[in-house]
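Problem 12. The chain below contains 711 residues. Write out its predicted structure in token notation.
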Amino acid sequence: MEYWALATGGAALVGLVVAFLYAKMVTREAPGDEKMQSIAGAIREGAMAFIRREYQVLAVFVLIVFALIAIFIWHKPVDVVEGKRIIGESTYTGIYTAIAYVLGAICSMTAGFVGMNIATKASVRTTHGAEEGGIGRALTIAFRGGAVMGLTVAGLGLLGLSVVYLIFVKWWQVVATPAGQASIITGFSLGASSVALFARVGGGIYTKAADVGADLVGKVEAGIPEDDPRNPAVIADNVGDNVGDVAGMGADLYESYVGSIVAPIALAATVFALSGSPDGVTRGMLLPMLIAGVGIVASVIATLFVRSKEGSHPARALNMGSYGAALLTTIGTLFVVLFWLRDVEAVKHPIGFWISIVAGLAAGLAIGWISEIYTSDRFRPVKEIAQSSQTGAATTILSGFSEGMESTAGAIILLVGAIAGAYLAGNWAMPDVANSGIYGIALAAIGMLSTTGMTVSVDAYGPIADNAGGISEMSGRPPEVRRITDSLDALGNTTAAIAKGFAIASAGVTALALFKAYTAAVGIDVIDLARWQTVVGLFLGGMFPFLFSSMAIKAVGRAAYNMIEEVRRQFREIPGLREGKEGARAEYARCVDISTRAALKRMIPPASIAVVSPVVIGLWDVQALAGYLAGALVVGFLMAIFMANAGGAWDNAKKYIEAGNLGGKGTPTHAAAVVGDTVGDPFKDTAGPCMNIMIKVMSVIALVFAPLFIR
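Solution.
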């Protein structure tokens, strides 16, 4: 069996090698003239400085959690017999789980660092490519820069899990029971989740503080274009695109990807154990990793499909890659499932598990499609928000809120349909084994994220195109260059919304699977709503997404206030800056420092509460923690969809007007749309995306620290 684990590591290495080759292709492109390189250098310097400081803070947190896991975690096998919990003999697994935790954190940090390093190089080359070769050349460079991030995220995630499995499960065999082995692997997922939560919150606060300040003072008060070099916050805004939408989103989907693999591994340890087949347990634990391996190979092949000719819409090229990866994964996983489970006696209909995988993959694509409908200016919702801006900012806000709320209905219907389909298919696959349907749901989660390599590639392309537009404006490129980068940027907003839809949808399914793994770990057979402790936990869980969102949005608001005051001060005190006189230069570094300090200071409270609260409640009562996780899952999922889609719709409504519709730039309609976009910024890039990480972080924390809660 270990050869197959090596094969998954090999597939991960293929992805990493191709990422390296794409990085080489990007860096070989011409970076433009000296002015373009100077602007890009300032953005790159700010982005890399922030990520280094952020990782220093994260390193302290990781070391503290490493020590707590190493000291307190012992694996305690729990069985439920006639409604009573029977606790078996404890086995020390703390140091192994802690090592897996650190490895997961290191891989996540590495993926973020590598992706942002290439993204900051790709943006200036995209600008030059647009000037020299048109939209096709610009798209190719931007996408290859994003593909470095996408394939690195998927490659490091699967490679790290393969290493942990081989070392601790197959070679060292540090614990005999499958449940104990799965608990060690779960440590890797916790490392990924820890980094993702802080990176998403910190990056989101940084980018939106700069964005809000730049928009409100620059566009509305000063009446200057977006990314105008006269705006003191313009460099901080472009830095924020990288730290929030490249490093932050990369860490987000890395965590989602790893979690979607770990959830079925943890469930296989209990579900297949009931079949009485040790070989079946091993095959059930390895199957998610094999599916992920197929997805990486499919994503690598699909990157070759992304080609755009002059005059064609770039969305078609990106869709070719996304749908190509999904189709190849669907075909590949069919052969893997039928081959891998053919000799497992308890699996009567292996194709049932393949149906579960396809249900997840199809639901992910469909939820992404709903996100596109609600955030693309080609469809009704965005156009209606833009039209409502004709009567002021208030109607813009109301219209965006209503569209965002409406979008949750389609997403939740698709999600519950996928859950039901995956459960029934899983039950059909193993009809004589309890909880096989839950294992099917877990496979649906990895189905959704099996093409993470392509999903992140398409998503990371967006901020590269956005930065390319900023560099074009600041370096004085011809108007046709800015039109090309603007068209790529508008598409990037939609691809970002689709990626968020994928991440949020997978969070709901993955958290459900992790929830079941937690209840099995602590020996809960039924969640008893008649117990007051469970009801208390349920209400606290439902409240927490509101509290978390409030803290994140408030952090953006306070940081944006400081940014706005600084931009106003510079316009007042630097002679000739507002007028663009020669020799008048904005103090960009001060704005970069404001965003950096605000992000590092204010990311800690909300992220820390999400990490600590499950442990505190679990130490009080395991049923209360089950209620807490359930409440947070349902409310957090709905809030994530609402905020991501509403924010994306407001943003593209503004861009729809800026493209010349409804009067265009400089009109009261445009000013109202900018206000809507400002409200939507922390929705879609700070609080909203953090919801799906928060849901899974709390579930993984509960699973890893479950031995502490067992009495």
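Discussion. The chain has one domain: 2-709. Students who got a different answer should revisit the alignment rule from Section 12.3.
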